[in-house]
Fold these 2 entries.
Entry 1:
Amino acid sequence: MDAISVRDVTRVYGRPRTSLRHPSPSVRALRGVSFDIPQGQRFGIVGESGCGKSTLLRILAGLDSPTSGSVAIDGRDITGLRERRLKFVRERLQLVFQDPMSSLDPRMRVGDIVAEPLVAQGHRNRRERVAELLEAVGLRADAADRYPHQFSGGQRQRISIARALAPAPRSSWPMSR
Ligand SMILES: Nc1ncnc2c1ncn2[C@@H]1O[C@H](COP(=O)(O)OP(=O)(O)OP(=O)(O)O)[C@@H](O)[C@H]1O
């Protein structure tokens, strides 16, 4: 079973075109995109600015829905019920956004931000794991007690990377899950 299967995905922003004489401001960001990513493979999506990479990633993460087409993660169609889809996807897929401040909650301490996926997984030794993750991305352990605005742009991106690395990879999940 493929990790990710994308079938004929289209995403149109704004109202669809109604007539040739009155072109609407709609943007067709994705047009019939299809591909499969097998388990355990690295996969790059490359393209010029504005070609639809972020739009595609948001759809894969369940943060947006395709106008048409479908996406399956681990064989399960995620274009169905919203809340259930998000929980299922969050356990399997992490994103590092271009602009870290758009995804780091300014009211949360860095330690709690990095620990978020661990809470969802019921991880026991969260403090130790957060310290390990911060060290792995080149931040000091005391970063855990500070807030995102107290870091530079590059350091904020490292916080996002630490959070993305936090959940245990699927290969280490117990068979019962
Ligand atoms: N919310 C939106 N409303 C309308 N148009 C949008 C919206 N978001 C993106 N677009 C348009 O959709 C197209 C694809 O945008 P997207 O952000 O997916 O591109 P990208 O490949 O990630 O670009 P970059 O490499 O510059 O970050 C662009 O033409 C953009 O202007």
Note: The chain has two domains: 4-90, 100-172.
Entry 2:
Amino acid sequence: CTTTSHDDSKCCRIPPGSSGFPLVGETLAFVRAYSGTNGVYDFVRKRHLKYGDCFRTNIFGQTHVFISRTNVAKSLLGSESIDFSKRYIKSIGELLGKQSMLCSSHEHHAFLRRHISNLFTFDSLASFIEHFDELTVQILKQWERKKHVVVFDDAMKLTFRAICKMIMSLNEEEELKRLQHDIFLITEAMLSFPLRFPGTRFYEGLQARKRVMNALREKIALRRKGFENKRDFLQFLLSADQSDKRNGELLNDEQILDNILTLIIAGQVTTASAITWMVKYLDKHAEVQDKLREMQMDCKYKNSDSTIAPGTLNEMQYASKVVKETLRMATIVSWFPRETLKDCQIGEYQIKKGWIINVDARGIHYDSTIYNDPTKFIPSRFDEDPKSYSFLAFGAGGRTCLGMNLAKVMMLVFLHRLVTTYRWKVTDKDWSVEKWAMFPRLRNGCPITVYPLQDT
Ligand code: HEM
């Protein structure tokens, strides 16, 4: 048994680790890792090496336990046990909004998730694929002229535009630029100190949130007056709002607004980072890139004038394994925090009410008893399905990533178009990651030079 209510504390001990210095605990080491180019996970990795797959630390006055065991992942995430609740940083909650699904409590979360997941139907995914493919082809065409490209910058533009189009049919260039800049300010503010005076990152983030909310409110007003009628997520949420007033279970405007912002923020940087890592790994592993290109060239959608049909993606099996292996190695969300609501026992350890248990997904993805040669990029390892709870790129259980299929589609379509159009060379081989980033991403954004296939 991995998580049980704790009724006999004598039988077990607390996890190994250090509480650090009085008052500050190990906060300074944590902050140092965040502001370093190895990334914040370095803090966890070092302690994992020292203490093993379950250790305790103290950060910002709070006891944290990091654990990289699949059976614990299963019992904590699998059933979203009522003994644990999702933990989030208060300032992030303020930037995303009280109604954001990412920060909501257990019951409220179930209500929001039920509504929002209705948006991710097969039909909406199918029309998304077509649009994303067109956008990708457009952006890759520009690369031919530019020759030198920073992958992350264009991946951010691509994922942002695709998600905004799907949610609210945004196409207008100026409006997109303004919104992308404001979303950037909000994301930047997420890990800053919550100081609320002009000039601080947090303040600028809050101001940007106000502008985004105002713009979205105007959009809703136009839709309600019937001036705009589109087939997108926003329209769906509003029409459900109109037609189904009887069961009293509808999303109000604040819930719609906060969750539109949440979807953009949860989807843009994560997917853009994953795309960037994919380009980087494939540059390093020419044999994988060559094999992949050969397979994708056989695909009938190798010409940019025929759009990829949804069913075809299922046929891109090796490409799907490249996507999975990228997600395993990059582990964009390194750990999942959950707050313990009562004393309990995890494995052989005693856990106290109020402690934060972090399921260490990256630790699981790099565990050599689960994945052979875990530091090597080997897509064919996914010829067989991974063992239960050993692939956690999108989390698991009741909080599994809602945009999982969307993200996979974006990565697959991008990959297909890239390898059937260009060869590329990464021009700056540095593997440092961005300081203070919410998700691990390459600091240099992965600059490449591209060579059109017809020239090589
Ligand atoms: C490669 C890209 C992505 C990765 C690696 C990723 C990863 C994750 C992970 C690990 C979680 C669960 C966190 C936890 O349990 O604490 C999550 C949640 C979530 N993701 Fe993603 N995500 C990606 C793309 C997207 C996209 C494209 C969208 C939507 C446009 C999205 C929307 C969400 C939402 C709404 C949640 C919260 C779900 C809930 O709490 O019920 N994600 N994501």
Note: The longest strand covers residues 54-59.
